[in-house]
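Re: weekly structure request thread

Next one in the queue (125 aa):
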Amino acid sequence: MHSTVSGASRSAAAGVGSTETSPPKFLQLAAGAAALPAVSRVTRAQTYPTRAVRVIAPFAAGGNVDLVARIMGELLSQRLGQPFIIENRPGAGTNIGTEAVVRAPADGYTLLLASPRTRVAETCG
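Done, posted below.
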């Protein structure tokens, strides 16, 4: 037996006006759920830093890189409200300072002030 569905019945059969979630609404909900981890990272990033940050300058104190590091540290301290401690670790063609950063916890509180002379690949390899 073959039956036909009228226009009103078709609307009811398709879920129009019902409490079912339509595909576009489902996609919106799925996209919103997928964005939640990114939103929490943004919120967490807005509170950074919560403590002092070390900036390793792999050059001797008193040079150009040291001067840039200290000016940058002062400006970041004023803007972010936490101290940025500049630590000079010269030697071995910048490898000593670079290695100190590589060995530090990966929590964003130890930064490397690099220049074109900093040889990161050799230290990490």
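The radius of gyration is 28 Å. The domain at 57-124 is CATH 3.40.190.150 (D-Maltodextrin-Binding Protein; domain 2).
Next request, please.
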